[in-house]
Write a structure and sequence with these properties.
- With 182 residues, the chain is of the alpha/beta class.
- It contains 6 helices and 7 strands; from the N terminus they run αββαββαβααβαβ.
- It has one domain: Vaccinia Virus protein VP39 (Rossmann fold, 3-Layer(aba) Sandwich).
- It has a 7-stranded mixed sheet.
- Strand 4, helix 3 and strand 5 form a beta-alpha-beta unit.
């Protein structure tokens, strides 16, 4: 698998928006929990060994068929997770919207399939998004924009932050912010 994601100011900014009752899908090591403005976090992962060292509530389950009632969570956080699942994200989005309360948010961080840097890395035969172990499917900014607002990030060029707010498709990674309406 990909292992812990990079902690960047961009990602911390979004994690600090997280409050209320939170479901951390594909929580892995739970590296963003300390940035959430809540202690009410349920860590969900398909791999039991990933959950063992996390504090608090834990659920070992598949994120496409969540063992929760409707409208339970204020926020669903899925950081560096969707690229590891073979099914199209639409299957997950509908399930995630089911468990998030109206007015709640879903945050998804994923590599950008159309990243100009990833194209360059492939051209130079360097490690690119598709070459990471566990990568099943990559998404573009336009793929995610069908569901909500998309922001771009180039973690190794943080000074481009303002430009990427307007042009997320140039980002090396993408953050989708989806507001749940019912």
């Amino acid at each position: 698998m990909l292992g812990p994601s990079k902690i960047t100011f961009f990602r911390i900014e979004f994690a600090q928006k997280v409050s209320g009752c939170v479901l951390d899908c594909g929580s892995g090591t739970g590296e963003y929990h300390k940035y959430f403005n809540t202690g009410d976090i349920i860590s969900l992962d398909l791999t039991f060994s990933q959950l063992c060292n996390l504090p608090g509530k834990k659920v070992c389950a598949n994120a496409v068929s969540l063992p929760f009632q409707d409208n339970v969570f204020d926020v669903l956080w899925a950081c560096a997770f969707i690229q590891c699942i073979p099914q199209d994200i639409s299957v997950y989005i509908s399930e995630w919207k089911r468990v998030v309360k109206p007015g709640g948010k879903i945050y998804i961080l994923t590599p950008n399939r159309e990243s100009p840097f990833d194209f360059l890395f492939r051209f130079l035969h360097l490690k690119n998004w598709a070459s990471y172990e566990g990568t099943q499917r990559l998404y573009s900014a336009s793929d995610l924009a069908k569901y909500g607002k998309v922001y771009g990030e180039i973690w190794f060029l943080p000074w481009l932050r303002r430009l990427l707010r307007s042009f997320p498709s140039l980002g090396h990674t993408l953050m989708a912010e989806i507001e749940v309406k019912k």
